[in-house]
Amino acid sequence: MKFKLPLSTQLLSLLLASAIGSFSAFSAYAGSSHQFSLSIPTLEDGATIDGHLDEVQWQNAAIAELKYETSPGENILAPVGTTAKIFSTGESLFISFVANDPDSSVDDNIIRANLNDRDDTWGDDLVGIKLDTFNDSRLAYQFFVNPYGVQTDSIENELTGNESNAWDGIWYTSARKTEQGYQVEIELPLRLFNFDSQLSQQTWGVEFIRFYPRDQVRRLSTHQIDRNNSCQLCQLGTATGLEGLEPSQDLQLTPSLVFNRNSQRDPEPGADWDSDNSIEPGLDIRWGITPSTLLSATINPDFSQVEADAGQLDINSTFALFYPEKRAFFLDNKDYFDTQLQLLHTRNIVSPDYGLKLTSKVDNHTFAVMVSNDTKTNFLVPGNLSSDIASLDEESVNLAGRYRADISNELSLGTLITAKRSDQYHNYLASGDLKYQPTPQDTFTAQYVFSSTQYPDELYKEFCSGSDCQPDINCELSDCGVNERVLRTKQEGEFSDSFYHLKYIHERRNWYAFTQYESAGDDFRADLGFISRVDVNKLVAGGGYTWYPQGSSISRVELGGDWDISHNQAGELLEQELEARVEFEGSMQSYTAFGVVARERVGRRHDSSQLAIDGNTQLFNETKGWGYSKIIPTRALTLDLDLSYGDNIDFANDQLGTELFVNPGVEWNISDSVSLDVSHLYRALDVDDGRLFTANLSDIRLNWHINVRNFIRISSIYTHIERDPSLYLYSSPDAKEQQLGNEVLYGYKLNPQSVFYLGYSDGLNRDDEIDALTRTEQTYFMKLSYAWLL
Question: What is the arithmetic mean of pLDDT over 603-618?
Answer without folding.
Answer: 48
